[in-house]
Model the fold of this input.
Amino acid sequence: MSLWRQIARGLRVLTNRSAADQDVSDEVQHYLDHAAAAHVARGLSHDAAIRAARLELGNVTSVREQVRGYGWENMVGMVLADLRYAARRLRAAPAFTAIAVLTLALGIGGTTAIFSALNPILFEPLPYPHADRIMMIVEMNSDGSRNDGTFGMYRGLVERTRSFDAIAVLKSWQPTMTGADQPERFDGQRVSASYFRVLGVSPIVGRDFQPSDDRLNGPNVVILTDALWRRRFGADPAIVGRQITLDDNRYSVIGVMPGGFENLLAPSADVWAPMQYDMSQGRAWGHHLRTVGRLRPGVSVEQATRELGVLGRAVLNEQHPETYGRGVAFIASPLRDDVTRSVKPALLAILGAVMLVLVIACVNVTNLLLARGVQRRSEFALRAALGAERGRLIRQLLTESLLLAAIGGVAGMGVATLGLRALVALSPPGFPRVAAIRIDSAVFLFGLGITTLIGLAFGLVPALRAARSDPHRELQHGSSRTVGGHRRTRGALVVAEVAIALVLLVSSGLLLRSLQRLFAVPVGFDSSHLLTMQVQTSRPRFRYDSSTHRSFTLTQDAVRRVPGVTAAAFTSQLPLSGDRDEYGVRFESSPEGYSTFRYAVSPGYIETMRIPLRRGRLFDDHDGAGAPLVALISESLAKRKFAGEDPIGRRLSIGPVDGYTIVGVVGDVKQMSLALSESDAVYITQGQWPFADNAMSLVVRVRDDATALVPAIREAVWSVDKDQPVVRVATMDNLLAATAAERRFALILFEAFALAALVLAAAGIYGVLSGSVAERTREIGVRSALGASRTSILALVLSEGMTLTGLGVAIGLAGAAAATQAIVTMLFGVSLLDPITYLGVIGLLVLVSAIACAIPAWRAARVDPSSTLRAE
Amino acid sequence: MEEPNTDVIQGTLDMLILKTLSLQPMHGFGIARRVEQISQGVFKVNPGSLLTALQRLERAGWLDAEWRVTKHSRRAKFYNLTRAGRKQLEVETADWTRRVSAVARLLNARLLKVEG
Done:
């Protein structure tokens, strides 16, 4: 009741201030009249009565103000007045305001943008119901490396587990759809029937997979994403039951997933089909599946891991007691960890870096405010002398800094929106949850939070300083004399800025050097003028016939005839493309196996790639089906196995296939990444491999511009078979660049942050020195009047600035040595204390700060002693 | 002046206003006057404090205010006690009585009792 009354009355006053004021003055006036009348009644004259009444009442104005001042609405009025005053102050100093707002906008915007990019990965819950219960079931070796899962183990666990509600296995699947106007290859997954139940999401149209779908020779059914349904099938409402052709087989569509469904385990997948695993092929213990499960409510990760340990050993003992299982452990690992494992350290380092930029921005603005504080000291002294309370002055200053921060925050949200767009565009392929990155309420609150914190933080320093000062002394001093304490604070802030800038510069310097080192690594072939693409036959899988092989040969010949093409060949796996196809290789006379990359190629591949031949011979057209089986091995494998011996003529088996003879040794090639040195490899011809690879990569060496030939080459491929999809078209140089995409991403961000830090630090040094020169004009004038030379005055100012820089560098070095630990996983081939980086960065900082010092120093040297002394 | 008058004891102004208004509705000066009269000039009410207190009590819902036109065709604000105000007066009166008697007991305490 009374609260309501409070609000209602307050609002009434706020909405009609003048009527409320009239009421108050009427009431006071009425009081005065009555008091005067009382005195008249006691026998005083009219005038004397009024005087007496006035005397009793006191100052009428101040009574009125006292009565008016009651109520919460007056706080509102006061805050509004403060805001108006602050806005006026900011408008009066447009240069200061612009610089401060810009600095803050960069800091707040950058931090908010990075936060919004990391929020879906690191902080937000994953987009599934009870996502914390979704676990990857991981087979881990004793050295901590992880194996893919096996179908055998999956079956064993499903039968026995009590911790999991559902377990699913999945593998990637790239079916080609034909029958429409253009063949298209989809990204997809083959999954066990419980997959969507593990994720807790079901199709919005049609039905989920059932156990009866997921058995060998079961029905051919698929579920589509909403995006594919709209793009390829025009959002057909009668999609369920529709027949489509994938890899020459008929599939019927049974469902469509909801539009917002995010498939974190294979973000680009558009179709799903049941696993329909064939146990009879003896592959049940091959590691080529991923396993994911949903915990029962109330079961902890530790309990699940304990159970997996026990069950895993039991299954292995029963199924594979002889060869398998020593030293492997089975653990439950939360899905979020699995998704973010590879990127988390880099992301946290980036977040740390942008926070440092924010700190520098705040320090800079604090410095600007302090500099203004010096100019406004007499204003505050005057207001204090006129009776403004200390709290009122502090509130005024805080209002100003909060207003400044708010403007900076609004501009910062603009910067964040733009920055976020750039960030998404720059993000490396495989960056988790890119689609979920957006400015939402959490991001907005984050931005608001840091803005407020910043406003309070940098407002408080000058506010407390102003509150501490003694108005009496300030007024006496005017603003002409030195202000030692003040300069010390500002100097310390500049030292902090330089130190932080150094940390960021060193980090980005190390990343830059890593990238240089990485690209200096020889790839083992000539990547220039090389075009690559994947060509797929539309034949059913695992059905080898010579027509598949002939089709590839015809295609290759057609491509070779395209004008501008100098060489072309096929390979089953393409270096640096993400392909990974390893086989166990055994040499005769030794039971020892080697895990090597296996390339099934067409003759001419080694020449097209320009991989150097070290010994023996290359493939020629006679090394086909029916001829004696021949193989090439890589230099590293030759060294490992045949140190000092001649490998030519030795025999080896590749996986299940026996009887190849080594005819040559070729140079090592980087397959997975420039940073990894796995290069044991074996090459055979397609014609001599019993299982046809039905997706092959075409490598084309061209004379000039590779991309210009793409249409002609595509036409050549389709001239052989119009149903062959051509996908993943890229130049080898692009693939090379893409392997370093994550490092490059981090480097670009760090470079941007370091540059911002450098500019802000330079601005800070410049600002402090200019201020100090301005304050010391008189001192400098006296010095030069007493005979100090221009050079010595120049040196005086320069040494002040360089001392600050030197201190900042010293502190920053210690900071950098510690902080760079955070980026150690992103480095390649450089030490954390790389002397070139450190020297270069220090040189750069010293140079930039010398430039920042030079301008005020020059101004100081030009001070005219006679005019300054006269001005006193 | 025969006796020095003092400001109202801190914290009792509200109670005095409520008590005065419990007799009849009044305007600001009337209340001040009545307090002075009844206290026989011991208490002197500061007008600024009085008018502010009236606002506060009105906001709290203990008083209602009403503008009336006086016989000199002046606007005057008259206050009267609400039911909540009456209840509040009882609470404050009880509280005050308790405190006064406690103070009185302390002042009357005898030395020998402490020694015993």
